[in-house]
Amino acid sequence: MNRSFIIYEGPSLIDGSPIVAIAQVKSGNRKTGDMVQTWILRSDIDPITASRTGADTAICGDCPHKGTPSDKATGWAKDRTCYVNLLFAPNGVYKAYKRGAYEVARVHDDIAAIGKGRGVRLGSYGDPAAVPSYIWESLTRYADFVTAYTHNPINPMPHKIMTSADNAAQAESAWSRNERTFRVVSDLAQIIKGKEILCPASDEAGNRATCASCKLCGGNSIKAKSVAIVAHGASKRKAKELVQ
Prior knowledge:
Elements: E1 4-11, E2 18-24, E3 36-42, H1 47-53, H2 57-60, H3 89-98, E4 103-104, H4 108-115, E5 119-125, H5 133-140, E6 145-150, E7 162-165, H6 168-176, E8 181-185, E9 196-198, H7 211-214, E10 226-230, H8 236-242
Parallel strand pairs: 1-4, 3-5, 5-6, 6-7, 7-8, 8-10, 9-10
Antiparallel strand pairs: 1-2, 2-3
């Protein structure tokens, strides 16, 4: 199976705006390894415009890394610190979707077949909480493993989705609910000993793993400590300021 599929079209569970979720079956992402990637997008607005105008709330919720709306005519949100470059995969997937390039997987068995025996990444862009959980349950029913993260105030699937935390207090709150967390820190000293471990795929860990080989970010289905990573990428300085 080498194609990509539309697995959901409908209202966002975050704000009701129209969104689409697309499962990309093959991926050449060197950081994650070859996993099923899922792209959650506004179905009516391209990702860059959605970011600039704040319409990406439908797929990102109140994630602090999405930045704030800009009054410019082009480009994305101000002070955006999200590691996803909208010019590449999200924009390309959106354009292909608007061209009608993707087949629709309409029933449980068809969606389940996409993830069967594969690693599945929920929300390669976008928050999985925007999409009904039954879609993700179908996609991951026969998956080999899952990686997923949410900034939503309520983690809809803590058994499979990591709760994203931006500071120690948020992490402690999630741990009190028996949720595992993924947290961006400004330096290694902020990692909480006994509770968190450094992401094995990070620069500080020597990039010795991919998500496909690590498999730690699978929510409570994984019996392990929570995961932390030092802010990185093009917006590293701004991201470090955000998590102080």
